[in-house]
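User: Hey, quick favor. My workstation is busy. Could you predict this chain's structure for me?
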Amino acid sequence: MPSTLKALITGITGQDGSYLTEFLLAKGYEVHGIVRRSSSMARPRIDEMTRNAEIYQKKLHLHYADLDDVTTIRRLLLKIQPREVYHLAGQSHVAVSFEVPESTCQFTAMGTLKLLEILRDCDPSPRFLHTGSSEIFGMPASAPQNEQTPLRPVTPYGVAKAFATDMVRVYRDSFGLFACNAICFNHESPRRGESFVTRKITRSAARIKLGLDRKLSMGSVDAQRDWGYAPDFVEAFWRMLQLEKPLDLVLSTGKLHRVRDWLDVAFKHVGLDWQQYVEFDPRFLRKADPQTLVGDSRLAETVIDWKPRVSFEELVQQMVDAELKSLSDLRPPLCS
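Assistant: No problem, here it is.
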């Protein structure tokens, strides 16, 4: 693939952004990432790339801009002229969206609309992918969910994502943009933020094993989701933008697991029984918890030849192993 291909990524310092950057660099792309001005200078997910003199400012470039900074983003697009734009940025924590609903909608919903307006004026306009979410389905009347399932969000985050998803469709149909939605069900990795329950579990299993913690406080352990592996998903993002015509695709594993399954696999991996260490804390209960969110990705399998490769058990074990490696230096000294 020619090295002249350029891609722009919003949310490049996040879980998906970091994996997508690695994937595109391996494909020979020149990658540009938008970083919030208020963002911390510590960017552990992409540090290895930005510290590499053969990559940073040669194949990988970072630019400061906020999603609502229309002038700066427009200027960047005119300067870079990317072939592909991957829009991954936004407030992505469902529980936090109840605490900050206005900013969630401002960045997740309106940020996407402002970006679409800029792309509408580009000539030629780049191919555009927006990462949607299974949260747009909320309390679905049927399972599994596919591209035709009605949107019934029940969280501020879900509402914001539903707005953005529909706007992408509107701009595709009304203005002819190559714009598509990757409707992603939950996907995790060792790079998942520590505030997410999946990372909380794998981190606690490792910390308890190493003697750094004694207990793990949890809300409901019966909540269930369709969980996949983040690097599998970012490959699907790229495949979607290589299609002849844009379309929306559900990306999922098609398998439901409960939070207690994370506990089972994570603690068993370190030789512990989670029921001896986990205690219930009502503070962690969701105000509104979607039920039976499980995806049907048969269209993605047909159109982009995509299937998730990493199993649920492999995902959890990989995350625990990553925690053990990062925490091993913190192990308390052995008593003599």
